[in-house]
Amino acid sequence: GTLGIFLAATLSKRGIKVACVERGKLIGRDQEWNISREDMKVFVEMGLLSETELEEVLVSEFNPVRMGFEGISEITTTDVLNCGVSPALLLKYVKEHFLEAGGTLLEGAAFKAATVHPEGVGVAVRAKVLVDAMGSFSPIAAQARRGTKPDSVVLMVGSCATGLPPTTSADLLWSFTPINRRLQYFWEVFPARDGITTYMFAYTDPTPGRPSLKDVYADYLSDLPRYRGISDLDGVSCVRPFFGFVPNWHDTPLKPITSRLLHIGDSAGNRSALSFAGFGSMARHLPRLTEGLAFALETNQTSRGALQLLQPKSPAISMTAAMQFSMGTRSNQVFDGDSFDPNIIQNYLGSSFYHMAKYGESVYRPFMQVTASIFLMGLVTPCSFQDYTCFCSNPYILDSYLECST
């Protein structure tokens, strides 16, 4: 996982000897990451970027940003995920700062059983703590989970393209279609340096027989003209297509199976189940992880229990799992017959967004940022004994929360 270089660099700047093991080359992709300018300040504060470098890696910036459901409800705000960051430039500069601080980078080194084998030549790496930043498909995390199947997956397709109508605003979550192929689709759009980036995604469970990514991409191409207000895709040129899936385990963060091991980022699962990128989460946790791990190393607190304290269980993240449950479809649902309403997710989420807007930015902004709390927590507090019409009119929301929490 490339995001591990951030923690490696901050620890190196603290005078701690750090070796970063990377399976391939430590380089960033071309497709931009989205984050707020406020969240990016941590890279300057931690010494990973200069002010000049920060401005260089921020390749696009836009406002406002929108979430909602066509014809039902809409929320608009500013300065949330409204900056496009060049991963290639960001990792280039952080890598330089890491090496300048005395860090060791082992590229082209595959991880196997805590032994590194680049090009078949064994290289032993001795360390006080092994930090697992290898992402959702980390072999260490897979061993710790003992082959447990993910509780849910996010199916994501999209592209960066030219020829689409220009925009200076963004959608963080927009939906305009009923359930299709047993999936409820959501959309995002961001202005990008190379064109317009659009994503279409859906939450579901990892059950055989689900629509393939090829099927989902076909739906994306079919609905893209309607989403962007054009008649067809003539004149639209794809710069970069992308597709994939992100697994989610609801029992997070992942507990280490031994002493001297710390999972961070996606390998720990310590991020919102609604997100399919861990960059923002890593940026927000970077100061805490740096201070905590530096203290653990300086005081030799490397036991399993001590390191686990650096990744405490977050009720807010557990709540996002409940929210994802209510935004997605499941294999045991009935998708036909008189009782099936293909607009059920649209309707109850639209009502929920209406209530978020009703109670103001303090309720809906954290949800848009995917940070501290989600709308369920926001609704329960201000609405208690006053206004619980959202739950009453949409009992499926509460049902989903209770089912996911048990």
Automatic annotation (TrEMBL):
Q: Which InterPro entries match?
A: FAD/NAD-bd_sf
What Gene3D superfamilies is this protein classified in?
A: FAD/NAD(P)-binding domain
The entry's protein name is: FAD/NAD(P)-binding domain-containing protein
The organism's lineage? Eukaryota, Viridiplantae, Chlorophyta, core chlorophytes, Trebouxiophyceae
